[in-house]
Design a protein that fits this description.
By secondary structure, this protein is α+β, with helices and mostly antiparallel strands. It is built from 15 helices and 17 strands.
Length: 432
């Protein structure tokens, strides 16, 4: 399809306004996701991406007005304060036509969906001293100077400081100095945690425990973020284990969209998958699903292999960044999974070693406190498989798309079923 160009020069006022509006979308509207790589089944979008030259874009879903927008992402920040480039691409969903748009048009679309937005003057990357010989020491000094005041003016002030002051500083240090933002957040978490014992107001406890600060997911919870699960590097094997009883070797590797997309598209269109998995989508839609999941910081997909043959797919998701957190008192150490076993032949399913391998891999990560599931009440096989490895049903919940069994599993429950699994660590997980 045709790509139309509308690209006047960007003014200084626009360059200051756009990052704030985009940050508002990410933080308040929750309509954003990262889109990674070059699409294979979406020719118009691929043509636009070739003009930007970027491998990562911010996708904004304005489906309520029939649009979606793609913005080149110059820097992805763990703090939420990303760095963007222009021009952006606007797609009319009904026709598929993509227009290359300027800052004024982008601002008009956002303001149309959020007319009350008042954050247009926020500079998402504040000035920090340039040429700092030791950015970590500078940041620790910053924490010592400003954090003691968190308890003086109530929770609203403390939340505002975390979101509007501390996180932009972390984003700026990450962008300008290539500092590890997760490490900076961990330093901030520990510094705030030391204030809790002397805090009679309860503000610090709420800052550390609340899943949201104002309307945004609590950024301090990145302290419990497992990069090994949600942002693995590469697509090679991350786990392998021989199961002597079944005489099979189960291995796990991160989802490779170039290698696996067509395969899982076939899996999800099998009859036994359609009713429960409900991902029998066209290839373009499935590609969008993975290209917006894999580069994000909420979930990741994996392929399980039996004796080298791809057999099952599972997703690991960070519950506090998932809608499931609204259905129980979720902790930042909770990690959930979805599992789909492709074969229907009982001789090829190997459900027990496949599921054990998934638990081995997830529980090997020290950030994980318990595993969570929300399988459909219609899937008796899934319930039995989960119970076999130690999951226990907590309650039945009504999700928007299904009635589900909310179920939990702690390491100790799993180890009670399979004592040999307690020796699995991040260091041994590939060598078992």
């Amino acid at each position: 399809m045709e790509i139309q160009v509308i690209s006047p020069p960007i003014t200084q006022t626009q360059s200051e306004k756009i990052p704030a509006l985009l940050h508002y979308c990410c933080r308040e509207l929750n309509n954003s996701s990262c889109y990674g790589g070059m699409p294979k089944y979406d020719a118009p979008l691929a043509a636009f991406f070739k003009t930007t030259g970027y491998a990562l874009h911010l996708r904004l879903d304005f489906s309520s007005i029939g649009l979606e927008v793609f913005v080149p992402l110059k820097y992805f920040s763990e703090s939420g304060y990303h760095v963007y480039d222009l021009p952006a691409g606007e797609r009319e969903v009904a026709t598929g036509i993509i227009k290359v748009i300027d800052a004024d048009r982008l601002a008009a679309i956002i303001e149309r969906c959020a007319p009350s937005v008042s954050a247009t003057r926020i500079d998402p990357l504040p000035d920090v001293p340039q040429g700092i010989p030791d950015p970590i020491a500078w940041f620790e000094s910053y924490l010592q100077q400003y954090l003691p005041s968190l308890t003086e003016n109530g929770l609203a002030y403390a939340e505002a400081f975390i979101i509007d002051n501390l996180m932009p500083v972390i984003g700026a240090l990450g962008y300008h100095y290539q500092a590890n933002e997760i490490h900076l957040i961990q330093l901030a978490y520990h510094a705030i945690q030391t204030l809790e014992a002397a805090d009679s107001t309860g503000v610090i406890k709420q800052l550390l425990s609340n899943n949201k600060l104002r309307n945004t997911p609590n950024p301090l919870h990145k302290h419990f973020f497992s990069r090994a699960l949600i942002n693995p590097t590469g697509t090679g094997t991350v786990y392998s284990r021989y199961f002597p009883k079944e005489n099979v070797t189960v291995s796990i590797r991160p989802f490779d969209i170039d290698r696996d997309l067509e395969m899982v598209h076939d899996w999800f269109n099998r009859e036994h998958a359609k009713k429960i998995w409900k991902m029998d989508w066209p290839l373009q839609q499935l590609e969008t699903y993975y290209r917006t999941m894999l580069p994000g910081n909420a979930a990741h997909s994996y392929i399980g292999e039996i004796n080298g043959e791809p057999t099952y797919n599972f997703e690991v998701y960070w519950v506090v960044r998932d809608m499931l957190a609204e259905y129980y008192d979720a902790l930042p150490t909770d990690y959930g999974t979805h599992q789909f076993i492709a074969p229907t032949d009982p001789r090829k399913k190997f459900a027990s070693p496949s599921t054990q391998s998934m638990l081995d891999f997830v529980f090997a990560q020290p950030q994980v406190g318990k595993m969570v599931g929300e399988g459909s009440v219609e899937s008796l096989a899934a319930i039995m498989n989960k119970a076999h490895v130690g999951f226990r049903i907590e309650k039945v919940i009504e999700l928007p798309h299904k009635k589900a069994n909310l179920n939990f599993c702690y390491r100790e429950w799993y180890w009670a079923k399979f004592p040999e699994a307690q020796h699995i660590t991040p260091q041994t997980v590939k060598q078992i």
